[in-house]
Amino acid sequence: MAKYMTLLWGSGSPPCWRVMIALEEKNLQGYNQKLLSLEKLEHKSKELLAINPRGQLPTFKHGDNVLSESYAVCFYLESQFKSQGTKLIPDGPAEQALMYQRMFEGLTFYEKLSKYYYSSEPQTLKRNKEALVTELRLWEGYLQKLGSGSYLAGPSFTLADVVVFPTVGTVFRFGLSPERYPKLGEYHNLLKERPSIRASWPPHWLESPKGLDTLKDI
Amino acid sequence: MATDITLLWASGSHACWRVMIALEEKNLQGYNQKQLYFEKGEHKSKEVLEINPRGQLPAFKCGDLPLNESCAACFHLECKYKSQGTKLIPDCEEGRALILQRVFEVNALTEKSSSVLYYNWRVPEGERHDSAIKRNKEALTAELKLWEGYLQASSGFIVGKDFSMADVIVYPNVAYLFHYGLSEQRYPKLAEYYKGLMNRPSIKASWPPTWKNAPKQETLKDI
User: Which ranges carry the GST C-terminal domain (chain A) (predicted)?
Assistant: First the structure.
């Protein structure tokens, strides 16, 4: 099963991390994997472009299926391996609907983080910073409403957490203040101990535990 | 049931259109709906904010459950109404993988189209650069070539021989591009796909009303 799977990935890339969490949750450890260096532009190598013309990571292969969209891989793994590992899509209609809603809002969250991180011009930076703050406050509100110890869609860990946690992990790595965002801080602390997340924690974050300061003042 | 479903939508919004196609395909005609107008700022009205605190359309509720992200709504409808209407995500492994891949790949198409179509709206005057406009057009061209490639061996659908979730999600994006004047000569496969599904009942029934008598747009003529 896992031995017929291959994952090409980069350390610290939230989309790659989503796939790795999903693989762990579905008990698919032992998949073939290759760590590529984003700094050395290995994601634009001939080898990768041959499988994925977009030259992006993650690139995931299972038999003849090649998937390069992290959400597609997560849905695919949950439906292929429904009966093993953690049940990632809950049965209850309310929880399921909330899961879908938060999953897709998670794309907006990641987009706003990326836009801010990659902006350079002062006015663009200011605009994107405000957009990110608005977004962070929304998620802080979502967690506030659900109460302590809750996951994004309710009492159980679901695909919403698989796809959104990497973004949350990244904002704290970039220095987000848990005092200013206590609910997100609590969520981060709860999930960072989860086995699937510990097992897939970005290796270069372990090598240099001190993160960045980019979001310190947000 | 259709009467438990509410959709607040705007004509020409590809996200709203996706949800409407899905509702038609799942035989949920008769849902409560209200057409709103971005130009009048109605997407920021109390009515919308009560369902969608982001003040965006679609604002969609299935019973009490808000699902304001178009893909969330479509996936939920497929799951809940699995046994009625068209099967949008098949059970077999191979078909499903590629459908999921295209569903999520369309985000790249949306982003690159928006970068060109909405450049002036997104970027304040002082920050606009000709080099960025050029770059965005080149990125969109490259993206369209990829989709043109995906449709080379098409039977009229994005994936496989049947209408699927990939078509629900991608068709509105493609229609949008041709509405804005994309060249049918330069993108024959996309044009074939666009015309081939135009008369599908779910698509015809939900065609943006404001497009029906609108003058031809030419923004993407030279892409």
Answer: 92-212
